[in-house]
Protein: Phospholipid/glycerol acyltransferase domain-containing protein
Organism: bacterium
Amino acid sequence: MILHILISRLLALSLWCFSRIFYRFEVSWVKTPPANVWKNIRVFAFLNHTSLLEPLFLGAFPPSFLWDAASRTRVPGADKTMNRPIVGRFYKFFSPQTISISRKRDESWDLFLEGITPEVMVALAPEGRMMRANGLDSEGKPMSVRGGIADILQKIGHGKMMLGYSGGLHHVNIPGQKKVKLFKKLQICFEIVEIAEYLQNFNTEEKGACRLQIARDLETRLAKYKPHPSA
């Protein structure tokens, strides 16, 4: 595990260097962040999932945060992605605690939740699938946030959640195409929320209702704060 953490840290910092050299970043915040904004984050949710190349956005994070996160981040990875020979292996090296999750709410999800200990930070793309060039997912359905993030927030209960609203990556790479464009602008908007305060806005007594309410709330926030794509 120590070797995996070291590899994860070196990979994260290498990606940070690569993305800072070959891409420009436009980073904004919903509200002016406090000085310690990157400390003690328990959940990082990346919204507007458009490409498997989204690790390029590591260039928008402080290296100190990446170094710390590499040792304690738990990631639910879609089994479709994790079963790919190259991409799946990359994500496993990138985060040693990446767990393959099926699209059904089954024992793989329960296993993932059981592994969320007090020192763990969870990173995920709550939409659970990737937007294609036509604005829909691979099955031709509109993109939407899934309710699994509600389970994670209720499991953790307190601490900070960082929301990252992506401007998208289709101008860099379109899913299914091999061409990757360099020297483009990558846009992301961050928002920090307190998990305990956030959960108070929802009916946490009824699990199904809570999952739906949180999913719809995140969709609303994404529509409001997502940066407009630019070349």
In short: Strands lie at 24-29, 41-47, 73-78, 97-101, 121-124, 160-166, 185-194. The mean pLDDT is 92.
